[in-house]
DNA sequence: TATGAATGAGTGTTCATTCAT
DNA sequence: CATGAATGAACACTCATTCAT
């Protein structure tokens, strides 16, 4: 059922078939809910062959992440027009990004939703990919700031946060576009440019948004009555200064 | 061992203990990897009691989602200063949001990472919460547009996309703040305001970002099917012109 | 089928039933060939219960070894008449030993044949039991030597080898008695006493067996043509000086 | 990788390589834990070739047993000096035996530990070898009895038991020598001669060991069924009177 | 109100064995 | 003579769920 069992394929080909099937299943079900049985069946092979070629569920997942992370970064890289201005580069990169995630929704779900959920290993693998993209965007923002040359450069930490916000917004929009009928990659990219770029522009021209004065120290008046059953391992940020 | 078995509690209290434990375990492990055994042990009760009160793993998860979604929306609602201007309201709402997610990282992980991953049912439940927040943000944006009254109002669809982008950026920043040492809720909120508000302002004052003219219809020249597992370790960012 | 499923037993009882079944299966099949399914079925319970009570196949095997090793040493200890002469004690001890191994053939097979075959852990556990018995026999031989008082005492190393030989002979005879119809525990014990004791007596009275003079250094003229495919991990004794 | 694939060997040679590898793996791992994969890899050939030449795991094991059993009996036979007295023959035979087992520990483990553990078939094959050796020893004992000619001959059944005990003791000592650093074949043989021969001599000269009178029919007063898992860490040996 | 005892159905993983070349 | 490709059947182990008390 499905792939049509063409027998006796060379290893490299079979391996790609398995990765295809695995990405599909991992993307739709998540790591834990994905069963090796389903992956093998979708790949049109028996389970032992999957293990022979890819060792274990963990290794298989890892291989999927690696392949798809590489594919995504390459797609973005290939989509960027090198000679353009910063916003032109961002625009083309975003279009490539949304285009790729729209074409490979399972891969995107796998990378964005599931890989960060299971074990440091996988999280680290996607984090590496993400870091690459964030670095790229950071460069773009810095370059745009230079071009605007009204401020010499934005403070480092500020840029990091902005790049993070931009990439995060892109990721969320990719989810949204993937879940919403009739939203094209181009529209998603335009929305994000609209949303983000002009604001960045203001920033760069020295007109940042400033928080209003406020006397009271802390929001969240809800006393949060739920008594924690046990301490969460590591609550990172405990409140605003 | 662990929670100190205080026996014979009234049902309501026990139920909350169970939900606390469940949120903690679901948030840290994910739905599939969470085991009813661990939840029961962390709650300090026996497994049958969990089933007696909460029926099934699915129902338990659902109850967790409901409680935490309600808690989050209430926290945001309570944090918003009603009399303020649109950006003042957004700022206070964001602070409440980041503050709450920082204080309840397991709950946030459960809602944002895990609930959307398993079955339409849970996804719908978080979607409802999200829709509430998006609606609120949409109102704010529309109100801001009215205040600016240079354009009568932004087109509906546009506003939806922008609200989506804003909320998505907020969610991503919440993840990021939760994972990064030393980022406070206030800082996260400020970053997002900086990033977004001025851009929105430009939009509202009639200076949207416009895409450049381009002849070719779609990027992604990579023929894509089965990107071979092997080569291309080349990094994305080569520098901005 | 089989054990008659009497339901809802207290844990301690069920645990012993499981150990009984496990000893039987391990003894007959060996560690590797024993399946948890068969053990569970023979015990009249489902597999998960076996895991709930005994954790893993390894732990189950370990528990079996522990219980049966204890049972064997206790049986021997209980069988020895304390007030008797050395040979009287040996005789009664041997009878108890052969009696116990004959009554619990599966346990004996498990301890003697299988436990030494799988992993240092199990080997060490039986080795501890064996060491106890060897120590007991060593004492007896030394005591007999003192009683004979014609030689002050046998050299330490010599006694160790003799005790080892005696225990080894006993073990082999236990196997033999277990495999041969119509050989009783008493007969096996008598055979071993006949075989060993008088020889020991001679030793103690100063008439040891002495090897004949021989010029040539080494036997084994067979050139052993088989070319080893790979070096055995550790060939212990490479020949006689 | 590993054995260095020298291709195109004549069948007989390849077959011996496979048997070498198989003996090594079977001896170290046991029958069940040995994998055809490991054997094939150690032999430096592909798995199908192993099957082509040796049919199945069972047949392979059988072939190993056959070859090594033959090698052992031949080594013993070749080691015996034909013209000697009975004890001289035994001495030389034992030296050859211990020498061979020391040189081929994997083979010895395979024959003595593992082959008796799996199925009647293999047990029968080693039993045949063993029977040959027992018969040889029986001859020697009978011959010695004739030489001593004080008793016409020991009763048949008695001799069988004694030969069994001697061979069993030899086997146990072989294990012991293999596991104990610094015990040579010669020492092991001497120990056994010391242990056994003088005792046999006494037997032959009409001074057997006789059991003491005893009224009670059978020891083992322990009620035995299900010795509770818990107590009694008391050691066996409390001292000899 | 609360639990110790128990299981059906499934998971990832391995292995002896066989084709097709 | 020799192997890369492939699998059916089994195994150890886990989990959500339910009874009987």
UniProtKB/TrEMBL annotation, chains A, B, C, D:
The organism of origin for this protein: Streptomyces violaceorubidus
Write the protein's name.
TetR/AcrR family transcriptional regulator
The record ties this protein, via PROSITE patterns, to: HTH_TETR_2
Which InterPro entries does this one have? DesT_TetR_C (IPR054129), Homeodomain-like_sf (IPR009057), HTH-type_TetR-like_transc_reg (IPR050109), HTH_TetR (IPR001647), Tet_transcr_reg_TetR-rel_C_sf (IPR036271)
Q: What residue ranges does this record give for the DNA-binding region? A: 35-54
Pfam families, alphabetically?
TetR_C_46, TetR_N
Q: Where is this region: Disordered?
A: 204-241
Query: Domain HTH tetR-type, which positions?
Result: 12-72
**Compositional bias annotation for Pro residues:** 209-234
Which keywords has UniProt assigned to this entry? DNA-binding, Transcription, Transcription regulation
């Amino acid at each position: 059922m499905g792939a049509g069992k063409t027998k006796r394929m060379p290893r490299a080909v079979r391996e790609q078939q398995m990765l295809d099937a695995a990405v599909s299943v991992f993307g739709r079900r998540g790591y834990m809910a994905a069963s090796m049985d389903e992956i093998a069946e979708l790949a049109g092979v028996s389970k032992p062959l999957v293990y022979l070629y890819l060792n274990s569920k963990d290794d298989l997942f890892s291989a999927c992440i690696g392949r798809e992370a590489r594919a995504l970064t390459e797609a973005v890289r290939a989509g960027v027009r090198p000679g353009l201005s910063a916003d032109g580069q961002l625009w083309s990169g975003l279009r490539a990004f949304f285009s790729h995630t729209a074409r490979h929704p399972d891969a995107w779900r796998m990378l964005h939703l599931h890989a960060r959920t299971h074990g440091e290993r996988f999280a680290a693998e996607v984090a590496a990919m993400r870091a690459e993209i964030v670095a790229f965007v950071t460069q773009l923002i810095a370059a745009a700031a230079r071009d605007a040359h009204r401020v010499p450069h934005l403070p480092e930490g500020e840029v990091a946060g902005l790049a993070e916000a931009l990439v995060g917004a892109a990721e969320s929009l990719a989810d949204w576009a993937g879940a919403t009928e009739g939203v094209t990659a181009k529209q998603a990219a335009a929305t994000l440019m609209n949303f983000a770029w002009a604001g960045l522009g203001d920033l760069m021209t020295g007109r940042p948004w400033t928080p209003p004065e406020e006397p009271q120290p802390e929001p969240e008046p809800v006393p949060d009555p739920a008594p924690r059953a046990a301490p969460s391992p590591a609550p990172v940020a405990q409140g605003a200064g």
